[in-house]
Structures are given as structure tokens and as C-alpha cells.
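User: For my dataset I need records formatted as: sequence, then C-alpha cells, nothing else. Please produce one.
Assistant:
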Amino acid sequence: MLPATSTPAVNNRSSRIYSKILVAIDGSDPSMNAAEHAISVSEAFSAELHALHVIQIDVDLFGPADTPHDVIQINKQAQEFLNRVKLKGNKKYEIKTEIIISVNVPRGIVKYAENKNIDLIVVGTRGRSGFRKLLLGSVASSVIEYSHCPVLVIR
């Protein structure tokens, strides 16, 4: 007789596979598909869901290349993306949203995930740059390479 195998419990917070999930949002269709999937996974595991948008700033020898007006506009657009994610979510689960600024988007995502003790990162295959010929976008690829936790990539 084979030994009984047990499946991971999803109701007990201490024994859940995923208790904190992060979805990275850039407003692209793949990132919004990733958000829908992350919402489903977070509901299935009763996990805390974080939606993150990283604003990439260019820095040169003289400091940030973006003007304060540019950053304000980008921030408004990022908040619209995150509001769309909140609307997709079920009202019984709070989705924590945050906008951060980083010179490197994948590094910003991974660092946020480490700081918040995220168990699963969900990203889209390609972001706003949308190079169709790439199987996997550079952000998703870098997040996979440097993440401390599993990364789920959604088309």
C-alpha cells in the first residue's frame, strides 16, 4: 500500500502555499490578464494580494531626466491602471496597491516582493514595449531570474 499523500491546506494561514501574492501591472493587456489570474489565485488561497506599478525613471549625470510634470502624469496613469485592477477584484478581498519609482523595473518588483515577504509573483509575458517576437519580455525574464519566490507568467 502506498503512503497517503496530503495536499496543502489552504484555509490555515500558517500552512498555505501562498499567503501573499504580488501582481506587477503596467497597463498592457498581458499585465491585466496577469491581474485577473492573480485575483483568482489569491481568492483560491485566501491570500493577500498586492498590485504594484513601477515607474521607471531615467537618471544621468545630472540627476533624473524626467521633469516633475512628467512624473505626475505617469503617476496619474499608473493609478488608473491600479484602479482597473481593483475593479476586477472581488469586493470581499482587499487588493493593496502601490506605485514605486525605480531606475530598474525588474529590480523594483523583486525588491518589493522581498520587502513584503511575497510568496508568488505574477507577471504578464510582455509589457507595454510589446515586442511581439519575444517569447518572454525582458522584465518578466529578469523577475524570473532574480526572484526569491516562484514567478507565474501569464499570456
